């Protein structure tokens, strides 16, 4: 027994000797760690949740992202996660911890756990970045693009840390402002100390809302409008004033050249002429009519709509075989491939009308001018339709409507529903429609049972069809009644799929089988997916044709589906496709 007791005593002594250096080292490190904690005020539960949000954010999204975009997205998401973690810890300390009887561990143990948490979070983040690089290469491959490397993608971690720290610092600044308000309320208004922080937070929230709904918003968009109006006045070196009367901006035009804006001047100074059309189609051709009305084109006593109708009458647009009303994007941009495609198809016997409603790019217009584009689209269509309706039925041109991106929303706004749309037009082609499009949402939400949101079928495809490629336009059957309505949309187009509903609701397109060019690894995460797809909006066109918001010559197939002329054949289609793709390459090179 004595031998056993002696052995145990020696074991305890040797263990103490062995542990002593580790314990001493940890206790020596503890003051340093606590000093660092005080400087950065690190919340370790917040760090764990931030790492979780970061890990979610580097999972696949709709379009490929380079390290810079990924770093910005992940930094914002990590900051959101940090805030969620801080709230969870606060709730634990307030409601759960007081009811527990667990003894608080020694300080050095707590420091050890905190150090382990930080190291684990760093390792998890690095591991997720390596996985993310592989996922990004998969998305690049789906879109026929060259992918990134693991080493290059690791830079995302440093940028995310910087962005997250800035967001947290901004929050802490607001917190100090709330505390300042609370002290003022306690001192001057005699608000009880316990109530003062809540009142201060509400007061700050009201001030922020009023500021951003009023002064700040108006100031921001006023500055943006001013900045982009300068760009609007810029004369592109390859845009020259037309001399033919069939074009707005010509000497005979009612819409003066200098008032058309940068995009308008490009639109009227380019496009196929009769010689090129005839050489491509082998048939006689006319000079296509292109009418454009800029924001500054109408005199004070005249509206844009009145000027547009007058230009259509001046050019003889109502005597052509086809009249297309294009609702432009924010800056007044018109898809050159779409315009040229319909002109080639009908041998130039066409008139295209487009008008500008804003100086702002589509992204800013989507935030500030959605009501403006809807009002502008409706007023322009109603004015043209009223004049078009005066012509005898057999002497009217085919009336088609077209819109891309936000322009499709403005074009849709002219119609209350499907019945009115079909009663007034001979066809509608809408490309890359935003998720907030009213008619599009109605059709997709009421799609036939068993069809996916990314490839919906509405009412057996009898009137309205959705397609991401030419083959889908022929489905589900040859029975497609006229007038036809077609939506072109890719499964990977963030403009189509972005919505504020992504914050808290899983969309059908992420619960159903993924689209053909969307990674099977993409998942929906609360808050995170919303920011991922929102960031994808800025890179929607940074992909190859046939993916994202790049529809390329698919617009030709769209026009063929809804309004093919007599004598149309596949050989002619491919000849036209070659010409409009060459013209598009030229435009990208010089514009």
Notes on the structure:
By secondary structure, the protein is α/β, with parallel strands linked by helices. Helix 3 packs antiparallel against helix 20, helix 11 crosses helix 14 and helix 12 crosses helix 21. The protein is elongated and about 90 Å long. It starts with a helix and ends with a helix. The chain contains 22 helices and seven strands. The protein has a seven-stranded parallel beta sheet, sandwiched between helices. It is 56% helix and 6% strand.
Order of helices and strands: HHHHHHHHHHEHEHEHHEHHEHEEHHHHH
Q: Name the strands of the widest sheet in spatial order.
A: 1-3-2-4-5-7-6
Question: What ranges have pLDDT less than 50 throughout 5 or more consecutive residues?
Answer: 1-5, 7-26
Helix content: 55-70%
Largest sheet: 7 strands, parallel
Topology, please?
Elements: H1 2-40, H2 44-57, H3 67-96, H4 107-142, H5 150-153, H6 155-189, H7 196-213, H8 215-233, H9 261-269, H10 274-281, E1 289-293, H11 304-315, E2 322-327, H12 336-345, E3 350-355, H13 362-368, H14 370-389, E4 398-404, H15 406-412, H16 418-424, E5 427-431, H17 438-445, E6 464-467, E7 484-488, H18 494-497, H19 508-511, H20 528-537, H21 554-563, H22 570-590
Parallel strand pairs: 1-3, 2-3, 2-4, 4-5, 5-7, 6-7
Helix pairs in contact: 1-4, 2-3, 2-4, 3-6, 3-20, 6-7, 7-8, 11-14, 12-21, 12-22, 13-14, 14-15
């Amino acid at each position: 027994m004595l031998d056993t007791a002696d052995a145990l005593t020696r074991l305890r002594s040797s263990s103490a000797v062995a542990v002593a250096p580790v314990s001493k080292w940890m206790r020596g490190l503890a003051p340093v760690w606590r000093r660092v904690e005080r400087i950065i005020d690190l919340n370790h539960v917040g760090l764990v949740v931030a790492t979780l949000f970061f890990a979610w954010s580097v999972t696949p999204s709709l379009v490929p992202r380079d390290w810079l975009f990924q770093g910005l997205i992940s930094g914002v998401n990590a900051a959101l996660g940090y805030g969620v973690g801080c709230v969870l810890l606060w709730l634990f300390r307030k409601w759960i911890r007081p009811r527990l009887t667990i003894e608080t561990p020694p300080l050095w143990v707590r420091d050890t756990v905190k150090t382990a948490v930080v190291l684990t979070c760093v390792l998890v983040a690095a591991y997720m970045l390596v996985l993310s690089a592989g996922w990004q290469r998969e998305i690049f491959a789906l879109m026929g693009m060259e992918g990134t490397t693991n080493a290059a993608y690791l830079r995302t971690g440093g940028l995310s840390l910087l962005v997250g720290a800035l967001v947290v610092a901004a929050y802490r600044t607001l917190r100090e402002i709330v505390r300042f308000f609370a002290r003022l309320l306690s001192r001057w208004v005699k608000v009880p100390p316990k109530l003062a922080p809540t009142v201060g937070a509400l007061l700050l929230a009201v001030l922020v809302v009023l500021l951003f709904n009023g002064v700040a918003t108006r100031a921001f968009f006023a500055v943006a409008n001013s900045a982009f109006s300068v760009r609007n006045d810029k004369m592109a070196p390859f845009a020259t004033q037309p001399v033919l009367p069939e074009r707005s901006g010509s000497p005979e035009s009612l819409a003066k050249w200098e008032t058309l804006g940068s995009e308008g001047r490009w639109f009227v100074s380019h496009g196929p002429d009769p010689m090129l059309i005839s050489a491509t189609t082998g048939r006689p051709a006319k000079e296509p009519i292109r009418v454009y009305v800029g924001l500054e084109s109408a005199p004070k006593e005249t509206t844009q709509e009145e000027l547009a109708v007058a230009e259509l009458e001046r050019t003889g647009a109502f005597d052509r075989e086809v009249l297309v009303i294009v609702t432009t994007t924010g800056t007044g941009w018109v898809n050159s491939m779409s315009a040229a495609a319909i002109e080639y198809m009908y041998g130039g016997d066409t008139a295209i009308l487009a008008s500008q409603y804003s100086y702002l790019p589509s992204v800013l217009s989507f935030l500030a001018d959605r009501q403006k584009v809807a009002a502008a689209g409706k007023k322009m269509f109603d004015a043209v339709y009223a004049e078009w309706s005066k012509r005898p039925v057999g002497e009217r041109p085919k009336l088609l409507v077209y819109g891309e991106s936000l322009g499709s929303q403005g074009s849709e706004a002219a119609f209350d529903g499907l019945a009115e749309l079909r009663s007034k037009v001979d066809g509608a082609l809408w490309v890359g429609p935003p998720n907030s499009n009213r008619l599009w949402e109605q059709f997709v939400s009421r799609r036939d049972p068993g069809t996916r949101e990314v490839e919906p079928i509405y009412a057996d495809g009898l009137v309205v069809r959705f397609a991401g490629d030419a083959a889908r336009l022929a489905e589900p059957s040859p029975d497609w009644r006229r007038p036809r309505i077609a939506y072109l949309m890719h499964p990977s187009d963030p403009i189509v799929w972005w919505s504020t509903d992504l914050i808290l609701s899983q969309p059908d397109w992420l619960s159903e089988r993924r689209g053909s060019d969307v990674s099977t690894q993409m998942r929906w995460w609360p808050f995170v997916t919303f920011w991922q797809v929102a960031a994808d909006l800025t890179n929607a066109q940074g992909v190859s044709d046939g993916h994202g918001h790049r529809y390329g010559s698919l617009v030709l197939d769209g026009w063929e589906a809804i309004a093919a002329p007599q004598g149309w054949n596949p050989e002619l289609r491919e000849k036209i496709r070659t010409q409009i793709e060459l013209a598009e390459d030229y435009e990208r090179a010089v514009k």
